[in-house]
Design goal:
- The complex is a heterodimer of chains A (113) and B (111).
- With 113 residues, chain A is an all-beta fold.
- Chain A is built from no helices and eleven strands.
- In chain A, strands 2, 4, 5, 6, 9, 10 and 11 form a seven-stranded mixed beta sheet that branches. In chain A, strands 1-3-8-7 form a four-stranded antiparallel beta sheet, with no helix packed on it.
- The model of chain A has no long low-confidence stretch (mean pLDDT 93).
- With 111 residues, chain B is mainly beta.
- Chain B starts with a strand and ends with a strand.
- The chains are: A mainly beta (113), B mainly beta (111).
Chain lengths: 113, 111
């Protein structure tokens, strides 16, 4: 059982570039979410999804897009990268439609120059 | 607004020392409370949780009690090990679909 898989592990972008962070889970979880982790600020929710075809905004959604075409995948798109998006990004999933127990991926370290 | 305040780190202890990491929250109602742990190079893992007042969550020797009157959920362990070195996050369920996290407390345990 792979759990929650995030790719890539590390990425460097130039300002204005776009990219997609991938997240896949093989646990048939309904709920998936993206968080960013910044020093001294804990984790902040970017977007989440309670099932295929359903997405919603979290606390810090600006500059990011998501879609959920399948139960397994929940990619996060950066439309035009900015230095303020330098962060560690975590994908998390849960077997319910809530947050009773989140399973986290190992993270993507993103630097925007 | 909703928020979590955690004890400032980093915390450095010797092996077998007693650990307390303080956590208080500001929220509407009585949310479920969680402690997550992040080991170096890994994602967060659920350590323990409590869903109502006076509940005690426990796992791997760690404990935390849901104190409604002080809006607190302090993490404790009687005897820490080197393998407990990690970052610890307090969190509560803001709604059915999101958690609010504290800023995390780095714990280092020396042999």
């Amino acid at each position: 059982n792979a759990g929650v898989t995030q790719t890539p592990k590390f990425q460097v972008l130039k300002t204005g570039q776009s990219m997609t962070l991938q997240c896949a889970q093989d646990m048939n979880h309904e709920y998936m979410s993206w968080y960013r982790q910044d020093p001294g600020m804990g984790l902040r929710l970017i977007h989440y999804s309670v099932g295929a075809g359903i997405t919603d905004q979290g606390e810090v959604p600006n500059g990011y897009n998501v879609s959920r075409s399948t139960t397994e995948d929940f990619p996060l798109r950066l439309l035009s990268a900015a230095p303020s998006q330098t962060s560690v990004y975590f994908c998390a999933s849960s077997y319910t439609q809530g947050v009773e127990k989140l399973f986290f991926g190992s993270g993507t370290q993103l630097s925007v120059l | 607004g909703d928020s979590v305040t955690q004890m400032e780190g980093p915390v450095t202890l010797s092996e077998e020392a007693f650990l307390t990491i303080n956590c208080t929250y500001t929220a509407t109602g009585y949310p479920s409370l969680f402690w997550y742990v992040q080991y170096p190079g890994e994602g967060l893992q659920l350590l323990l949780k409590a869903t109502k007042a006076d509940d005690k969550g426990s796992n791997k020797g760690f404990e935390a009690t849901y104190r409604k009157e002080t809006t607190s959920f302090h993490l404790e362990k009687g005897s820490v090990q080197v393998s407990d070195s990690a970052v610890y996050f307090c969190a509560f369920e803001t709604s059915g679909s999101r958690l609010t996290f504290g800023e995390g407390t780095q714990l280092t345990v020396n042999p």
